[in-house]
Amino acid sequence: MTQELTSPSPAPQAAGPDRGQGWWRDAVIYQVYVRSFADSDGDGIGDLRGVRERLPHLKDLGVDAVWLTPFYSSPQADGGYDVADYRAVDPLFGDLQDADELIRAAHALDLRVIVDVVPNHTSDRHPWFQDPDLARQRYVFRAGKGENGELPPNDWESVFGGPAWTRTDRGDWYLHLFAPEQPDLDWERPEVHEEFAAILRFWLDLGVDGFRVDVAHGMVKAPGLPDIGRGEQARLIGSQVLPFFDQDGVHAIHRAWRRLLDGYGEASGREVIGVAEAWAPSSERLALYVRPDELHQAFNFQFLSTPWDAGALRAVIDSSLAATVAVGAPTTWVLSNHDVVRHTTRLGGGLARARAATLLMLALPGSVYLYQGEELGLPEVTDLPPEVRQDPAFFRGRVGADGQHGDGCSGASGQDGFRDGCRVPLPWSGEQPPYGFGPGGSWLPQPADWGRLSVAAQTGDPASTLELYRGALELRRRLPGLGDGEMAWQSAPEGVLAFRRPGVLCTVNTQAREAEIPLPGELLLASAAVTTGDGTAVLPGDSCSWWAI
């Protein structure tokens, strides 16, 4: 049931430092995966009150905004991305009053708040889907193939593995591009458009500053729902246009939402934004989501998936900037999130390479997204036992002792199912689990050696990754040449990237060995110790340095 505030709060004042129009163009936005951030009540699961109590950490870190993953009423079949009620807070995370207090506390600290909206699908427990007749007016249902409709309507596969269709007791089939508990909405129905416009207004009235649109590329399917003609379709996402993703029709939805956001902003005196989580096969296709009349930002997954190689990095930076400049939008940069292996592990080279990649990212023009725990240098947890895992893709692709997949499908067709490794709860203090995460345990086990990585252990240590992030964000905020603006490549030795921002030069050594360059200027910040003398600077392998010029 949709919740209501017992004592509705007044509309909050505009949050964040006064940086003029377009605060989002160079904002540093911190992703909070709510269930793993901080637990206030001892049940081992992070909650909204826990987030509110830890907001000073984000203020001290130096970010501009907080993005909260779904905390709505949900059976939690996919970590809250299966929403049963978009206007209620799940009891696991608190209630609507907790959400209101969190938003107001963030604004008091000059932090803006962005929340997830999940428009491609709902939970199968949503009231619309629970009504069999109404479900067929709001979701994608089709008759099956075969003599008696016993075969799925087409060959589409779930992102999580297995068929993207489930048959009902009426004999027809419903589409779920993710888990069977997440039926896809039918965006050809005007009632779906009207409902989501009302949902956006509900949260805007509560004071949020924007929305991250989950699967922003997925709401519209190709006419006729054509077959793809091959398996392992999840591997094609982000490399080619598929009949269920990145269809041109999604842009009409985003244009309508931009009009809603702009109208609300004009009426309230606040600048509120929309952010697309969109997998597109090229930077040019991705840029379509951030045209002047569409959303404000889109995640740059092309950058996230680029290997640690000077040529590859330069190419993706150039293509990303060219595509967004062409439509007048800022580029966004991200290295980690709740769906991918943490970059401390993913890039290879360990913490040194991860620190260098972070300084590179923070020196680029545009906006940056940080994922909780990366400021601590947390690695991916790769040894979680099967009995504690909760990623639905793991279970849909899991092979049992009999050699069969748990649901009879091929796990190779979907995600690898190991997203739990980047979702292990944060270490805040202490030498033993749960490291200050909460008064009880933690929903996923934390490694025995994470005490040295806690916020408390790293605070004040000038060599720590946490202090590197704090220093970089303070410089980024203070130096006008960083953030949104121009950039120019400079000549550099093989394996080294060098680019100029107004007043700042960034050098990145992507090799494992040292590289010598002419001394650029005064060293501002480096991910590893730089040796200077006799007009030269020696850059350590896998390092990034910022220089005042």
Q: What would a concise description of this structure say?
A:
The chain is of the alpha/beta class. It has helices spanning 48-53, 55-61, 96-108, 127-130, 132-138, 190-206, 250-268, 283-287, 301-304, 310-325, 343-346, 350-363, 392-397, 455-458, 465-478; strands at residues 28-32, 65-68, 72-73, 85-89, 112-117, 141-142, 165-167, 173-175, 210-213, 273-276, 297-298, 332-334, 367-371, 488-489, 496-501, 504-509, 515-518, 522-526, 531-533, 536-539, 543-548.
Radius of gyration: 23 Å
Q: Which structural class do you get from the secondary structure elements?
A: alpha/beta
What distance separates the N and C termini? 59 Å
Helix content: 25-40%
The low-confidence parts are 6-20, 398-415
Tell me the fraction of residues in β-strands, as a range: 15-25%
Question: What is the mean pLDDT?
Answer: 92
Shape: globular
Number of helices: 15
| Strand order, sheet with most strands | 11-10-9-5-2-1-13-12
GO molecular function, one term: hydrolase activity
InterPro entries: GH, GH13_cat_dom, O16G_dom_2
Family: Belongs to the glycosyl hydrolase 13 family.
Organism: Streptomyces lunalinharesii
Note the topology:
Layout: E1 28-32, H1 48-53, H2 55-61, E2 65-68, E3 72-73, E4 85-89, H3 96-108, E5 112-117, H4 127-130, H5 132-138, E6 141-142, E7 165-167, E8 173-175, H6 190-206, E9 210-213, H7 250-268, E10 273-276, H8 283-287, E11 297-298, H9 301-304, H10 310-325, E12 332-334, H11 343-346, H12 350-363, E13 367-371, H13 392-397, H14 455-458, H15 465-478, E14 488-489, E15 496-501, E16 504-509, E17 515-518, E18 522-526, E19 531-533, E20 536-539, E21 543-548
Parallel strand pairs: 1-2, 1-13, 2-5, 5-9, 9-10, 10-11, 12-13
Antiparallel strand pairs: 3-4, 6-8, 7-8, 14-15, 15-16, 16-21, 17-20, 18-21, 19-20
Protein name: Glycoside hydrolase family 13 protein
Family: Belongs to the glycosyl hydrolase 13 family.
GO molecular function: hydrolase activity
